[in-house]
Design goal:
- The protein is of the alpha/beta class.
- It is built from 4 helices and 9 strands, in the order ααββαβββαββββ.
- The protein folds into 2 domains: 45 residues, no CATH class; 149 residues, no CATH class.
- The termini are far apart.
């Protein structure tokens, strides 16, 4: 699922692959790397996609919705998914909703919709640091249980996998001033008696 920037650069129907995308457009690079490694990759398109979870034995189905919404993070981690799920009209709610964009891990059930916030692959940026927004780096692996008679998703087991890469920020036990772009401070030479 790609967000605004990636969707403008990589429209459906194109076959070109960008080998060195800008840091803000990693979707084509991920797609290329996964396919080159032999993985079956499906680009779900722009912003929102519904995936049919059809029971092999009975043919009964449920919907899993993958969403890359907009807007900023909120104080309560579950607030944004809660408002999105509450905004769905009757008959359009999925059985399961997965949300990206907010760089958060969370899982639960709201209005009979199992939901998960999938985390992110980007560490806290200077913008996020200034706004006191935490980045939950890692991924969400979920296991679903489906009732074959109705197609309903009756079980939702999230496994949140955090990723910590402190080696990038610390060398020989010392922090590397990742928030400072100017290097070591330079002291101004001073002499006694000067104003």
């Amino acid at each position: 699922m790609c967000g605004d920037r990636a969707a403008r650069a990589y429209r459906p129907g194109t076959t070109s692959r960008i080998r060195a995308p800008s840091p803000k457009n990693v979707t084509p690079l991920c797609e290329s790397v996964m396919r080159d490694a032999g993985h079956d990759w499906s680009n779900l398109g722009y912003m929102e996609a519904d995936i049919v979870l059809q029971n092999v034995n009975s043919g009964k189905a449920a919907i899993l919705r993958v969403t890359h919404p907009g807007g900023g993070s909120s104080y309560a981690i579950s607030y944004r998914p809660q408002k999105i799920i509450e905004s769905y009209e009757g008959g359009e709610k999925p059985a399961v909703a997965l949300f990206g964009h907010y760089h958060k891990f969370d899982a639960g059930s709201i209005r009979n919709v199992w939901f998960g916030q999938t985390g992110c692959a980007q560490d806290q940026t200077p913008f996020m640091r200034k706004k006191s927004i935490e980045a939950h780096v890692g991924g969400l692996v979920i296991e679903l249980e489906q009732d074959p008679e109705t197609g309903a998703i009756v079980g939702f087991r999230p496994d949140m996998r955090r990723f910590f890469n402190r080696r990038h920020y610390v060398a020989k036990g010392l922090a590397n001033n990742r928030w400072s772009g100017h290097g070591k401070p330079q002291m101004i030479p001073r002499r006694v008696g000067m104003i």
